[in-house]
Each structure stands twice: as structure tokens, then as C-alpha cells.
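Message: A physicist's question: would you kindly supply an amino acid chain plus C-alpha cells?
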Amino acid sequence: MEPSFWHQRWAKNETGWHERQTNPLLAKYFKDLSLGKGRRLFLPLCGKTLDIAWLLSNGSRVAGAELSQLALEQLFMDLGLQPDVSAVGEVEQWSAKNIDIFVGDIFTLSRKLLGPVDAVYDRAALVALPEQMRSRYTAHLTEITNRAPQLLICYDYDQRAMDGPPFAISNEEVARHYGREFDLRLLESLDVAGGLKGKCPAKENAWLLRSR
């Protein structure tokens, strides 16, 4: 998926993946990450998700990566925060109290630039990437977060029935990407009400990944 695809989607406000409430699976299973107050979570390809406000209100610190500057402008406006912006490496860092978002290509974000994180929350990153990019992404995410535990939310459906994103991620694919480094636990598998985008039956799966 070329960066221009995502920039065009944000410019045209074609952001159907943006949920208008906190993801219920995050609220339900956040406790399974066993994090105390003040711990730092990384949200890859975070957009302007309302999950960030929920995490901040629950005492977490948040780091994120996002390609679109427009998305970040809207995020900080919604949060009522004025970010400090600085260039770090090949990305920009937008920071305010308890939040650091890196704007640019996630593959140029290093472990050193990101800094320590205590957990990863991936709701919209793995499912946003086509198959040929997912192995690179999962390896990179594992490396820059130093195999931090992860709450992963993805969809499973018949990919022949609909083009992504969001793309279908089967249980077998989750195991293929993460099974060598992590113990995998399927927390819940829900039927998507009305089908995914109203087009086909789908499951929304919540996974807990813990380093071996």
C-alpha cells in the first residue's frame, strides 16, 4: 500500500476505519496486559483513534506512529492538546503531556527513537497492510518494541468476498507472524454485526501476545 493511498483517504475524509467510540475489546481486555498506571503503550498506525483518549484517561502514557499529518492535527485538536513538534531522524515527533506520536513511515522508526514501551496495542495496523507487507511489519514491530506484550485486534473473513483494507487475518497467519516469539491467546472472537462493511460475514478477534 503506497503512502499516497493513505494520504488521499485522509484528505478526502474517507476514514471508515475510524471508530466513533472506544473499541469495546480494548476496554474489556486492557487489564490482561497487566500494566500499572504510567506505563507506556505503543499504537502503530494510530490515526486519530479515540482509544488514545481512553488510554490517557486511564492513566497510561501513549506512543504512536502515523503516516498522515492531517490525522495527527485532528487527533491533538480532539484531545485539546498543543503538541511540541520536532524532527527526529526521518520522522517528526509530536509530543504533549503523556503522549508522543511519530509522524512518518513506521519502517524508519527505530527502537532508539521510539524509546521503551511496556505494551503494544494494534487495532488498525496489521489489518491495514496487504499480505506482502505484513511479514516485514510484524518483524519490525517486534524489534522496535523489544518483544513487548501485545493486544492485537484483527478481522477474519473470506478475503475473496471483499477487498481490503481491512484485510483478513486468519488465526494461522497470526501464528505464522508471531508464534515463534510469543505465546498466543485468543481472548475473544465476535461476529461483526451486519457483516464487515455490510458486505460479508466476519469475525473480530482479540489476541493477547506475551513474549516467550
